Amino acid sequence: MSVPDLSIIIVNYKTPQLILNCLESVYRYTDGITFEVIVVDNQSEDNSRLILEEAYPAVRWFDMGYNSGFARANNFGIRQSKSRTVLLLNSDTLLIDNLLTRCVRLLDAQPGVAAVGARQLSRDRQLRPNLYTTFGQMRRAFYILPAGDATQNALKKLIPDAQYEDPNQVDWLSGAFLMTRVSTIAKAGELDERFFMYGEDVEWGYRLGQQGKLILLQDASFVHLEYGSSSDNQQHVVTHINRFKPQIQVSQLLWVRKQYGVGAYLILMLHYLLMVPIVFVWKLAVNLRDRRPLGADLENQRAFAHQVGIFCSFFWPTLFNRPGFYKVR
Fold first, then answer.
1. Which residues have C-beta within 8 Å of that of residue 235, sequence separation ≥ 6?
2. What is the pLDDT of residues 276-311, one digit of tens each?
3. In whole angstroms, what is the distance from residue 310 CA to residue 315 CA?
4. Would 163 be classed as within a structural domain?
5. Which keywords does this chain's UniProt record carry (predicted)?
6. 213-224 and 93-94 beta bridge pairing
7. Is the pTM of this model over 0.85?
8. Is residue 149 part of a domain?
9. What is the tens place of the pLDDT at every residue in 158-188?
10. How many domains does the chain have?
11. 158 domain-assigned
């Protein structure tokens, strides 16, 4: 049996229909390369395997035996792959053209490129705006400061973005669609298995980027439905002070600590701790101004304090960069 050009790795957590739709688009549009599909299951405890193998018997199915999250499941899939290139592909994605062949050929032709991705479209086929592509954008978003150009300009001076001559080059690529070589992974290392979900692709991007360019094709795209395996299948309700789910922020704090060191991590944690009394005092002042009960509408502030408490529960392991599994229970 010949070795395939590409191994497509999909992590499943109770999303068989999404994977069916995803694979239908893969088989419909992919031409000119050979590929295998590896599905790694995170203890779905449903009939996902039966459904997928009935529709696509060639799929290679593996059970993790527990909900291992994104990094561990993908690493397991990478180790099972038989090809020279691998693609991390979310279950809630759809291809709209022969993108996989283009990416494989790019990696084959350009040894200076470490990994490649494409732009994301929403379910209505519109380009998804405001997706981070630089480390600076991500780090600036962590700080809860007054909105406005002055604040953002000051943050950009403190945390600038890298500048590249190639308009397609970025700091990191989304794990929803990330193609790289097995040989590149051997040099950069696998995904950091301390991450449960979120942030692992950002941290991996730093190490992959040390092996070559990370290319985000500006003239290529795929559909990312998003939140396919979320328990509520809905986006997080975003407010200015509660802009990330706790799991996202715990993972990103681990990334900051690992990549930028103790000082950057402590500054960010101090910022959150100081913001707890500030957001309460601000809301109490607004209530006084509007002649409302002093304790009215403090749900947002309480939610923020609860999130900071979750961050603090991971403080010592993160501070000392300890092994473990950084999963919010």
1. 226, 227
2. 999 999 999 999 999 999 999 999 999 999 999 999
3. 9
4. no
5. Membrane, Transmembrane, Transmembrane helix
6. antiparallel
7. yes
8. no
9. 999 999 999 999 999 999 999 999 999 999 9
10. 2
11. no
